[in-house]
Design goal:
five-stranded parallel sheet; four-stranded antiparallel sheet; elongated; binds calcium ion
Length: 223
């Protein structure tokens, strides 16, 4: 079953699209604003995104650009009648196609089928690249200069958390919560142990990625 993410702030449209798409046999997830949409995109795997342009918090255009930095997932833009988009702007943004509201649902289904067919190999490119590091978020593997670095499941989850928050300090509490879970009752020191083992695997000579923000937590930063 193809999994679709709808990012649309208008409740009526969101609900309508969800029902129609589910009826058509798609698995549907929704987000109410740009920030929530981008967060959902980062945390899960989807086959296609339907993206409204006028969105609160993060505009559709910004969401589209951010997604394109890391993924080739098909994106169909849904625009309001008075927003005239030309093909150049659309391509510049990285979208695959667009529809002007209101549209016939059959027309949307047809465009979705085309977008899904054209991008059937995009799964292989679901990578987050940072410096010489490349994380395959689908295969859950990390590469450095194209050599695989073997990570345990916990190490992977820890690295993923630092990577999606790259250049931002992530507190020890947040790491514990996200990687070990709310109910973890062991020692906080476990985080340092895993950070050290990640460092040994990733940092080399002058090329350091994992840094300590003393008293706060850790940060992934290229130095
Ligand atoms: Ca809107």
């Amino acid at each position: 079953m193809k999994k679709i993410l709808i990012i649309e702030d208008e409740k009526k449209i969101r609900r309508f699209l969800q029902l129609e798409l589910e009826h058509e046999g798609y698995s549907v997830h929704t987000a109410e604003d740009g920030a929530e949409g981008f967060e959902k995109f980062q945390k899960d795997y989807y086959d296609l995104i339907l993206l409204d342009l006028m969105l609160p918090k993060l505009s559709g255009e910004e969401v589209c650009r951010k997604i394109r930095e890391v993924s080739e997932i098909p994106i169909i833009i849904l625009t309001a009648k008075d927003q005239i988009l030309n093909k150049v702007e659309l391509l510049d943004m990285g979208a695959d196609d667009y529809l002007t509201k209101p549209f016939e649902i059959e027309e949307l289904f047809a465009r979705m089928r085309v977008a899904l067919r054209n991008k059937k190999n995009f799964e292989n490119k679901n990578f987050i690249v940072y410096g010489s590091l490349k994380l395959d978020t689908k295969g859950k593997k990390l590469y450095k200069n194209d050599d695989e670095i073997y990570l345990t499941k916990k190490e992977y989850n820890l690295f993923y958390l630092l990577l999606v928050n790259k250049e931002i300090v992530v507190s020890r509490e947040k790491i514990l919560e996200e990687v070990w879970g709310f109910d973890y009752e062991g020692e906080e020191k476990i985080v340092d142990v895993y950070i050290n083992s990640l460092r040994k695997k990733i940092d080399e000579g002058n090329e350091k990625y994992i840094h300590t923000a003393r008293g706060f937590g850790y940060i992934l930063k290229r130095e």
